[in-house]
């Protein structure tokens, strides 16, 4: 192209096109050409500033932006871009001045208000930051970034109701905004008891949206769901006047959101469970009396209840009368060559349909018109078949010979745990960013840590819930190992479905991992070592697989946090309950009728067979105190980097031990735990680094 014949506007357009497409050198030449003719062409000056910024030549960039605004004092973009640059290089106060100037010239720039809000937040001026975000949203109600950023800020300043609102708006504007889903999920889990000004209608709308989708871990938000949705029905249930004709209960049976909750989240509440059991029995009686007309009206609820019962692995107690009726119903359905979907769904509320070979044959190739019944067929037949196929693709490593490992393996072959349906979708994240966030307020340096091809080992990956979190590290390859082939097949099915390609599964005992012939940059092992015969033996093997300066995330049970469970375990032992499904049902009934109920009913692990087995009937469980952990870390030359805990707990700790700025004193944490015994109710989960020799 002959530029000599082009106008200034044409050359500027051409330069901008080069600029956009990465042709920086050509763009620079053309911008400068314009300046030879028109030295005050402020757009070219500004674009040269942007080019310099892109090349990290910050001083040059600042000069160009200044020249641009000198050339035209009303050039709004010049002020905005100078503000952006100063923000990027950490000169926050100065950047505020330029943003304000830009706003003076153009009070309708949502982008400038959003940037200004970001800087106010950096400066700790939260109220001004909130006002600026709101101004951005006022100008552009669909400003996704402003809604998302405001959500974060409002949750940090403890205004969770408003934060929920803005995350929800961000998701509605961009349904693929994975970060908003993740933050929303965390906010619901952590801020439940701080929410005072809940707008019931809005919250139900939000929950319906979240439960129609598959982008969060629905069980993890159950306590929130319970608090906003179930209080009235729980009052009725405890009032002992559960009449199915009651309007509230009828609404419950017909409510789409309740159906979705039953399909996707474990119901972790004894009162609601008892209602579901009453309703289940009622449907069974009606089916036994062939009152299909009555049942038909509630088909969506019944299909959903069947999903719930499969999800909790049939943990609900069944009376003798019910067991007899179920056997009869099963025989009737097996002898009926026509598929009776409702009858099968009611049967599916009591037993897995795949436990009948005849029904399996009937349903494997059956095409239902109902999407809910199709889902039952998928979860009860097609997914287990898929897992059987995948098992053949998972290679074993070494022989499992340790007696405890063998027993633990049997447990997780029969009851893979944790079973899960959906989780927050991951986004590719820089491992370093994640680590820095999780160990806050501590900081660590990155020495000899490669950021490409990061090798991650998830030892004892179980059913893949843990892997789903670890596989998001950018440029990483993940190896997941576990004793249990059934758990690994479950994990592989889930991660294949989510489209994750960077995962290799191996069936192995941690004790055999030295045969792997591979080392790792990151090793994660949560909820596993305490199930080994000698946890330190397992840890030593993992430490040997960790590269120098590598990082390790460990999860171990706390002696203090699990103290409450000991009484429950003793009760189970005294009463001779065992880990079979029938015995677990009896155990749950007995404990629910006893004064030990409150020690266990608040744990979500009380609400499915595999989790009760994991919680109460484990083949092997060690628990630790922080003093013991301190000793172990010293022995293996591991540096403690910090716990992964909610911001709220870290704030409480910093008020209690303000002098421990990095929050790494395990001695202080031990004291803190004694004063707040539920701090590590899940586990101690913490990051470590191998000290360089
Ligand atoms: C409670 S589950 C935790 C699963 C997973 N880490 C998570 O957080 O979702 C414990 C897992 O550790 C596995 N496990 C226990 N001992 C092990 C060993 N010696 N070697 C390999 N895996 C083991 C079990 O098979 C089981 O899947």
| CATH H level, superfamily name of the largest domain | Vaccinia Virus protein VP39
Q: Tell how many strands the DSSP assignment holds.
A: 8
Strand percent estimate:
5-15%
Q: Which molecules other than protein and nucleic acid are bound?
A: S-adenosylmethionine
End-to-end Cα distance, whole Å, is 62 Å
CATH topology of the largest domain: Rossmann fold
**Can you tell me the CATH architecture of the largest domain?**
3-Layer(aba) Sandwich
Mean pLDDT: 92
The structural domain count equals 4
Structural class: alpha/beta
For the biggest β-sheet, the strand order reads 1-4-3-2-5-6-8-7
CATH class of the largest domain: Alpha Beta
- Main beta sheet: 8 strands, mixed
How many helices? The count is 35
Radius of gyration: 30 Å
What is the helix content?
55-70%
Poorly predicted parts: none
Shape: globular
Notes on the structure:
By secondary structure, this protein is an alpha/beta fold. It has 4 domains: 3-172 and 179-185, Tetratricopeptide repeat domain (Serine Threonine Protein Phosphatase 5, Tetratricopeptide repeat), CATH 1.25.40.10; 236-389, no CATH class; 412-558 and 623-693, 3-Layer(aba) Sandwich (Rossmann fold); 563-616, no CATH class. Helix content is 57%, strand content 7%. The protein has an 8-stranded mixed beta sheet with strand order 1-4-3-2-5-6-8-7, with helices on both faces. It starts with 7 loop residues before the first helix and ends with a strand. The model has no long low-confidence stretch (mean pLDDT 92). S-adenosylmethionine binds at residues 405, 408, 412, 417-418, 460-462, 465-466, 482-484, 487, 509-511, 526-528, 531-532, 614. S-adenosylmethionine is lined by residues 405, 408, 412, 417-418, 460-462, 465-466, 482-484, 487, 509-511, 526-528, 531-532, 614.
